[in-house]
């Protein structure tokens, strides 16, 4: 997902022998005994989301006596799941399902132990067409369905109405421009009161990077096309110029700590006027009792466009019975009646259009101002490509953004370095 996601450094299937030995047996305890097939789920969740997924698992086990799901975090949180699963695959003892960030799927799908669900997805009963396009895209690699969507979000701007009113600045509206955004950020910045117009992570990880892709896409660029980086020229330069403008105006809070916790604490504390973020932030915003609004992302061209960072349930082949049981569980878990319960606790938007029509989801939207803006944004949301080189490209772009934010490089120089690194990553991934 987009929240707090970090860039993995291209972990390969050849995990170290030490890690493989340590993980031997971790994916075990599955199998079929007396007509009951036991499968292993690694969900990587904590707190409320952990409690919710475990309640759902318990309900499935009660209502499906021929399948038993053994659920655990897998010993890691979601941002460490790729490394854990890779090592488990190398050890030959891996789970039946695991929660994996969407940007990691392409590297994981290199393993023939990851199920190909393409044929099943063609069955109307599978409900594939009911899932939002960003969710389908993030679960597909090279045109094949390699996972089940697990979580869906989008990026919009949450703003503090009190700070806008105090500064006499007009609140943002749908269709606003990036020039409007930078101007408002400058006008809302009050150094004497310690107020910033906006904020941006400056760690160089994926949390730094995903905010810039809608800007690049809006200008006709892309992460990559036909095996070559496609964020050069006007698209990448104008996006980095916007970042440079925020830095030059000193209107951006630059968060150099991993996870963006400081950035969000500044916003929640009432000392930041605008923050691009996802729906997961709204419960904390409401808890902080901020008078807030939500608007779509700004645009250069006038066309609405945003990013979504879906995560996936990846299903592994532990034999015919366990694979079939894992697919049955994943289909049940992501069906509308279960999906709506997961969405409310995990900060996810509905995985399926039919979920959004559930009374429980309508109730959630009615009680959460601004949530519908994130749902509506899914109609114009794009996802990062599921390509093997993406982690390396992300790292290069992240370093470029940080160098511009900190004034260590001009946008042109930073972009040139990122493009060179991206070309190398794409060439080596072929």
UniProtKB/TrEMBL annotation:
The lineage of its organism: Bacteria, Bacillati, Actinomycetota, Actinomycetes, Micromonosporales. It comes from the Bacteria. Keywords: Signal. Residues 1-24 form the signal peptide. This is ABC transporter substrate-binding protein. CDD domains: PBP2_UgpB. It holds the Pfam family SBP_bac_1.
């Amino acid at each position: 997902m987009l929240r707090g996601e970090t860039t993995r450094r291209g972990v390969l299937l050849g995990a170290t022998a030490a890690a493989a030995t340590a993980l031997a047996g971790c994916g075990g305890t599955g199998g079929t005994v007396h007509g009951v097939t036991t499968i292993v789920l690694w969900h990587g969740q904590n707190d409320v989301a952990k409690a919710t997924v475990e309640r759902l698992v318990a309900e499935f086990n009660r209502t499906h006596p021929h399948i038993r799901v053994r659920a655990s975090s897998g010993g890691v949180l979601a941002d460490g799941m790729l490394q854990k699963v890779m090592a488990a695959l190398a050890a030959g003892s891996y789970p039946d399902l695991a929660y994996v960030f969407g940007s990691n799927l392409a590297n994981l799908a290199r393993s023939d132990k990851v199920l190909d669900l393409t044929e099943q997805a063609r069955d109307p009963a599978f409900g594939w067409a009911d899932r939002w396009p960003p969710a389908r895209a993030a679960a597909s690699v090279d045109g094949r369905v390699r996972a089940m969507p697990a979580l869906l979000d989008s990026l919009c701007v949450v703003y503090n109405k009190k700070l806008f009113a105090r500064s006499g600045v007009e609140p943002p509206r749908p269709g606003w421009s990036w020039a409007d955004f930078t101007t408002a950020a400058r006008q809302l910045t009050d150094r004497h009161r310690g107020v910033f117009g906006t904020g941006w992570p400056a760690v160089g990880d994926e949390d730094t990077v995903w905010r810039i892709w809608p800007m690049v896409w809006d200008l006709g660029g892309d992460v990559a096309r036909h095996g070559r980086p496609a964020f050069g020229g006007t698209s990448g330069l104008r996006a980095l110029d916007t970042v440079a403008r925020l830095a030059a105006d000193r209107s951006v809070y630059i968060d150099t700590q991993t996870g963006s916790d400081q950035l969000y604490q500044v916003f929640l504390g009432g000392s930041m006027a605008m923050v691009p973020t996802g729906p997961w932030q709204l419960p904390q915003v409401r808890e902080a009792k901020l008078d807030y609004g939500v608007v779509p992302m700004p645009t250069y061209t006038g066309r609405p466009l945003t990013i979504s960072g879906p995560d996936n349930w990846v299903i592994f082949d532990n034999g015919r019975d366990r694979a079939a049981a894992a697919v049955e569980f994943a289909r049940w878990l992501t069906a509308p009646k279960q999906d709506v319960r997961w969405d409310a606790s995990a900060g996810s938007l509905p995985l399926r259009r039919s979920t959004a029509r559930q009374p429980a989801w309508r109730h959630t939207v009615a009680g959460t101002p601004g949530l519908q803006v994130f749902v509506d944004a899914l109609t114009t949301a794009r996802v990062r490509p599921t390509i093997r080189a993406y982690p390396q490209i992300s790292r290069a772009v992240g370093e470029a953004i940080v160098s511009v934010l900190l004034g260590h490089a001009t946008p042109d120089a930073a972009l040139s370095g990122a493009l060179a690194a991206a070309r190398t990553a794409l060439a080596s991934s072929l």
